[in-house]
């Protein structure tokens, strides 16, 4: 064998060995678009109550991603800024016992998931839910019976109004009787007149930007001969 042929043979052999030893790297296949749907179990709660937020994250490939995290964001009625409230360790894990301190709008952001290039799995794109609002109503306490009615409005209701209305009918015909003012701790007190017959009283705390309103009805009865 000539020297030239020997060189060619060696070169061919080395090329053949190299081509057998190279394995193309694995890569993630696709980035799948996702849809995030979130909602609260109740659209209105009393101050101090909690609400659960259910969550569903779906990929356009028909599967729900299990990888990646989801974050709950809140925007209070008095703010224009979104704040992160909680982050779950799984894509579609619900948010439990969320406690809004005032009327609050929420949304959930699925943060997406980038698959390891060596796994061959799909990656999932970020998505966020439509915003949804939970109204928070103020609370008002009162006694169980009697003509002396007192209690407290919460939260932060110092020096503000409670409108008292009265009617001889249970479901309508109410007219304004008096406007009360709470003290610095949100407490109120009134002694109702002993009118003859049955009377219905409505105590109304109006809504504002931060809180939904609240109310309760009160019933008094005095026999005509004892009325004064």
UniProtKB/TrEMBL annotation:
It comes from the Bacteria. Keywords: Signal. Residues 1-28 form the signal peptide. The keyword Signal applies. This is Carboxypeptidase regulatory-like domain-containing protein. It comes from Nocardioides flavus (ex Wang et al. 2016).
